[in-house]
Amino acid sequence: MRKSLIFVLSGVAMAAAASTAVAGEKVLEFKLVTKPIDVKVMEVANVEGQTIASGKLFGVAVFNDGRIGVKEFVNTADLLKGSGPFFGYSTYTFEEGSITARYTGMAKDGKSTGEYTILSGTGAYANATGTGTIESAPNPFKGVSLLNIKLVIKTPGS
C-alpha cells in the first residue's frame, strides 16, 4: 500500500512538473494600423457632442522584424466631444495562429489607451490566455488609427 501511494504521488508530481514545463509565455509587440469598415455613428438627442459609435474595423499589425498580421474587430464607443470609453472584441491572425481578445479603453484628448484580456487562440496560440495593452501612437495619416500593441500570451502547450 505504501509503495502504491508513493508511486501515485510521484506520478502526480511528475504530471504537474510536466504541465508547467510545457506551459509558456510569449510577448508580441507591434504597430497596428486600423481602418473603419462598417461603422455607424449616432448622435445622442439633447446632449451636445455626445455620440455612440459601433461597427466593424480592420487592421494590419507590423512587427519591427517585418512580420505582419491582420486584425478583424468590432468596436463600440460612447464619446462626449471625442472623449470617453470604448470596448470591443478582436481576432488577430498571424502566420503561426490566431488570438481572440476582448478589450476596454478610454479615448481622451485625441489619444487612446486600453487593456486586452485574451480569450482564446488557435495554432501556436491554442487555448491562449493573457493580457495586453493598447496605446495610441503619433499618426500622420487621416482616416486611420495608429496604435502600439503589446500582448502577453500564455499557452499551456508552448
Keywords for this structure?
158 residues; mainly beta; 8-stranded antiparallel β-barrel; 1 helix; 8 strands; 63% strand
Average pLDDT, rounded to a whole number, is 88
Shape: elongated
Strand segment tally: 8
The main β sheet shows up as:
8 strands, antiparallel, barrel
How many helical elements? 1
Distance between the termini: 37 Å
Give a structural overview.
The structure is a single chain. The protein has 158 residues and is mainly β. It is built from one helix and eight strands, in the order αββββββββ. The chain has one helix at 2-22, and strands spanning 24-43, 50-62, 68-80, 84-94, 97-108, 111-121, 129-136, 145-155. It has an eight-stranded antiparallel barrel. Strand 6 and strand 7 form a beta hairpin. The two termini are 37 Å apart. The model is unreliable at 1-22 (pLDDT under 50).
What's the short story on this structure?
The protein is mostly beta strands and 158 residues long. The protein is built from 1 helix and 8 strands, in the order H-E-E-E-E-E-E-E-E.
Write the layout of secondary structure elements.
Layout: H1 2-22, E1 24-43, E2 50-62, E3 68-80, E4 84-94, E5 97-108, E6 111-121, E7 129-136, E8 145-155
Antiparallel strand pairs: 1-2, 1-8, 2-3, 3-4, 4-5, 5-6, 6-7, 7-8
